[in-house]
């Protein structure tokens, strides 16, 4: 002991090695399989969109903290990188660079920093950015490139409709008619369909889920409740009238459902903290998604469903309490 | 499936580096500093003054009231002073300081190793002996043991639970007692059963001590009254509410005591002390202390006289390492960091943990990211992040509504927090204030 001074501090004196940074990089690692698959499927566009999104998110966070909030920038905690990746995963792989930068500014500036930064934002920042772009640039945001192996051209990629888009546009035709031209389940599972950069490859997203669960970054409750409730709700509709409504598997494999259930809805800051509340939140997202997809005017509803349920999180945290140890059991 | 408690819990690295080190008798300290308040309840009142001659085992401070405890001289010698000295709490406390001369014991104390197995004392005599011998809970809570042996009217106890869990990392004193003093401890358990009038005792031991489990089972043979249970390793299983939950699947009600579910819990060290008090007429003046730490050259388990300055124990374990940053009395999860190495060992000191500078460093706090790890870790089903926020804002009524007083301060939430928030510290602040508000309310 060099200076004969003992540190005096309250217990505990040891800590688990997990830090916020480790958790955030856990999410990044879990996103890598999907990113790799996107690059293989879309080519150069996926790389450009992802890089622009991640770099601008980190840069905006740095600039805002440094010059507007005048505090030490916290970009090394990894959360801006996660937001950047998730924003990129939620847009088409041929989105013009300028629009991506606007999306990043809205995500970080309005979605996160205007509330004070990590831990204080009520809505998922990447989704705030995504929905802003969807409303502001509807044409560019719905021009989906078709995954055709590694493509070296960025803006001139061949485009096509998403499976959910086809369903939305079917008019008087029956679902089975649409299904003839839609990709097979195998194609859906391996992401061979139109869609945004990181939403199509179900198998890669599921690998990501396994990584997140294995690394104990998230608990299983939210993904499970979203997938289950979406499956059950679309299943009921399908059983009622299979000519009008697509089957549950189709709904689970299309659109951003898995991306949303695994990576977007599980954002710590904007999701509930007690398992019972996680179920309510997840079921709410599932049900709202199906309502928007089937009865609404947008083909895709996961983003809106998550943002709506984000708004209920403070309420859920406030009124749904874990069962206390030794709590008196009330008998009827 | 091994039993364990149902809610929450964490898995800190066990680091039981002294588990194979047999208990050594520490050398007699040159002086002892004996605080007169080593227990929960009223401080005792000194009955010696400067220059008095005492022998080991003489009463030097008498208990004041029911929830209080006698204090005995742990060495023979001359009383140097009765004064305020800094103890493990970091504050000056009234203490009796004795300069050691010779090694004489008071009359009537049997200091031999001979096992006295037959129980002659009646239940009332056992309680009386426990009271006189100044026995308190030796797991660290230091609640006077005779109080837990006096069952109030209208309460019924069916099971004695013996706590051999030792869930704190590093500590091995209970483990060694179970291995080396098993016979005496088992007699102590039978004495406790007799005093309580129960037919059943369960010994809970975490499964990382298979040798202790096997050893006790060997001694017990097919004893129908005492059973040993191996438990799945999980902190804080040594909390009495968690242990009762693990062994008996009963939940002590919020604000209640083990008595409310028909259970009394005693620590293995306490059982040994009860044996010595009743069978050997020896008061509680020494205990087993684990002296340990990653940089110590000779970490060990020592049989130590109460009042020995912590510094002497560290010398016996190879001296204070160069890189020392923190010295903790107790385990790393709930122990108290010491301000000075002159602080004495007390009845509740189960270990001295020397931590290197790099572990004493505190990481920068971030904002809560609501990851809910603290909610998952809390063994009492509380929401530590919320309690911290409420305490920070001094919203004491809301704290009370959110069951802050159920917190057992086990530290699992702070241990697990990835944002390194000092959750237990805020919760303690909240509890202190809520307790004060409740006291004021009762007075009105």
Q: How would you concisely characterize the structure shown here?
A:
Chain A has 15 helices and two strands. With 332 residues, chain A is mainly α. Chain A starts with 19 loop residues before the first helix and ends in a 13-residue tail after the last helix.
Walkthrough of the structure:
The complex is a heterodimer of chains A (332) and B (444). Chain A has helices spanning 20-42, 44-68, 79-89, 97-112, 125-136, 138-141, 163-168, 175-181, 185-189, 202-214, 221-240, 248-253, 257-264, 275-295, 302-319, and strands spanning 144-145, 159-160. Chain A is mostly helical and 332 residues long. Chain A has two domains: 20-140, no CATH class; 168-196 and 204-319, no CATH class. In chain A, strands 1-2 form a two-stranded antiparallel sheet. In chain A, α3 crosses α4 (97-112). Chain B is α/β, with parallel strands linked by helices and 444 residues long. In chain B, 29% of the residues lie in helices and 20% in strands. In chain B, the strands form four sheets. Chain B has a six-stranded mixed β-sheet, with helices on both faces. The longest helix of chain B has 21 residues, at 423-443. The N and C termini of chain B lie far apart (52 Å). The model of chain B has no long low-confidence stretch (mean pLDDT 94). Chains A and B meet through α1 of A and β15, β16, α10, α13 and α14 of B.
